[in-house]
């Protein structure tokens, strides 16, 4: 059964209300128009429906003229012909339905909001393939038309076009993305790093990209089912680490907890150990428990009873165990908070505002900046169990 994408990545209502309040008192984020990839059909780099993929580019200025941030959009996956067919009628499967995007959070050009990256060249690559920019196949849709699974070609072709537009002369570069885009960041991190000379500081910042292979409350492995279907249907193989494939099957190698073992480029993982999307959609989805017994808990972690918190803390333990390998990796970083959230870098409210989660006296923005620019010897923060961090109560 496919996990359907939710707009705004299913953030808690409180966070969205706080964001609205914060934005009402701050400068409005820039709206950046969509650019369609040149020669997409000839390159075979197309969205699910065959339309050209798109991206949004905001040029850097001043000291950031030769610095680039590439951000990969998220939005779940499609793992069956039916789910991909439905997806191609949305902006997550067709550029015909894409619109301009607001740039906020790490994408903001407001120095107060985004002091380290505000004047960089910033790009959002839109997600329209349904396999974290990694598939390479095609199939016949139910109506006889073609479903194009060309995420890998989209990644390659858009990066090539950006290299021609100035990325090739970057002095600093950062690949990021959230949710399915966070997983894509891990999948493409080594390739991104390899595109630049050694003297270029090229690093990776996956946000909410660590998805666990766990059983839901009824014993079903939903995440595994979706990933396995996606990998098989869309022929995900070329992007997977060869050292992993030598020992494990493709679906295992698509898991972030395996990918991190093969990534050599400097990487900082931003994630909640109580990832709200996974708790709602893969740990305690509707239908995996009797009646509405978990509904209040999955809508707001503050409503969870002691028995439910034991389950959530079990999820947290598996998550922390899954990223422990990073603690011994040089030049890597961790910002693992205990806030009930999903995707934190792309929203100003969680990136750097008065409502931002704080770990080690650092907001997410400060932690990322200190790690990227090596202002701190190490940034490896793992939060304690909910509700020990009072800054989480600001957002979720």
Automatic annotation (TrEMBL):
InterPro entries per record: AB_hydrolase_fold, PAE/NOTUM
Subcellular location, record wording: Secreted, Cell wall
GO biological-process terms attached to the record: cell wall organization
Domain of life: Eukaryota
An MF annotation (GO) of this entry: hydrolase activity
Keywords: Cell wall, Cell wall biogenesis/degradation, Hydrolase, Secreted, Signal
Matching SUPFAM superfamilies: alpha/beta-Hydrolases (SSF53474)
Enzyme nomenclature, EC number: 3.1.1.-
One Pfam short name: PAE
Signal peptide feature range: 1-27
Main location as per UniProt: secreted
Main function: Hydrolyzes acetyl esters in homogalacturonan regions of pectin. In type I primary cell wall, galacturonic acid residues of pectin can be acetylated at the O-2 and O-3 positions. Decreasing the degree of acetylation of pectin gels in vitro alters their physical properties.
Family, similarity comment: Belongs to the pectinacetylesterase family.
Full protein name: Pectin acetylesterase
Protein species of origin: Oryza sativa subsp. indica (Rice)
């Amino acid at each position: 059964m496919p996990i359907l994408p939710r707009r705004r990545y299913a953030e808690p209502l409180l966070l969205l209300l706080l964001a609205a309040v914060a934005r009402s008192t701050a400068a409005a984020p820039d709206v950046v128009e969509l650019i369609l990839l040149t020669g997409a059909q000839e390159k075979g780099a197309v969205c699910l429906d065959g339309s050209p993929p798109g991206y949004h580019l905001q040029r850097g200025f001043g000291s950031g003229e030769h610095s680039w941030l590439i951000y990969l959009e998220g939005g779940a996956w499609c793992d069956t012909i039916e789910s991909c067919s439905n997806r191609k009628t949305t902006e997550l499967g067709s550029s015909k339905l894409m619109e301009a995007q607001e740039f906020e959070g790490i994408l903001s050009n407001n120095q107060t909001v985004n002091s380290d990256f505000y004047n960089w060249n910033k790009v959002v690559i839109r997600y329209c393939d349904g396999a974290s920019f990694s598939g390479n196949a095609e199939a016949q849709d139910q109506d006889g038309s073609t479903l194009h699974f060309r995420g890998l070609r989209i990644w390659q072709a858009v990066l090539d076009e950006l290299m021609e537009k100035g990325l090739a002369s970057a002095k600093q570069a950062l690949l990021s993305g959230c949710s399915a885009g966070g997983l894509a960041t891990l999948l493409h991190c080594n390739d991104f790093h390899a595109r630049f000379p050694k003297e270029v500081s090229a690093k990776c910042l996956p946000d909410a990209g660590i998805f666990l292979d766990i059983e839901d409350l009824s014993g079903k492995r939903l995440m595994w089912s979706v990933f396995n279907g996606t990998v098989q249907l869309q022929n995900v193989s070329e992007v997977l680490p060869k050292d992993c494939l030598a020992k494990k099957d493709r679906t295992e190698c698509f898991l972030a907890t395996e990918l991190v073992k093969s990534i050599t480029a400097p990487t900082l993982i931003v994630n909640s150990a109580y990832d709200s999307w996974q708790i709602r959609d893969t740990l305690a989805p509707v239908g995996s428990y009797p009646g509405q017994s978990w509904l209040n808990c999955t809508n707001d972690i503050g409503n969870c009873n002691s028995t439910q918190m034991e389950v959530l803390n079990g999820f947290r333990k598996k998550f922390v165990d899954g990223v422990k390998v990073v603690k011994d990796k040089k030049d890597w970083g961790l910002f693992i908070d205990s806030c009930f959230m999903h995707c934190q870098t792309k929203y100003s409210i969680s990136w750097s505002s008065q409502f931002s989660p704080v770990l080690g006296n650092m907001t997410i923005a400060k932690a990322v900046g200190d790690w990227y620019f090596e202002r701190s010897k190490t940034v490896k923060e793992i939060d304690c169990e909910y509700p020990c961090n009072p800054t989480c109560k600001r957002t979720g």
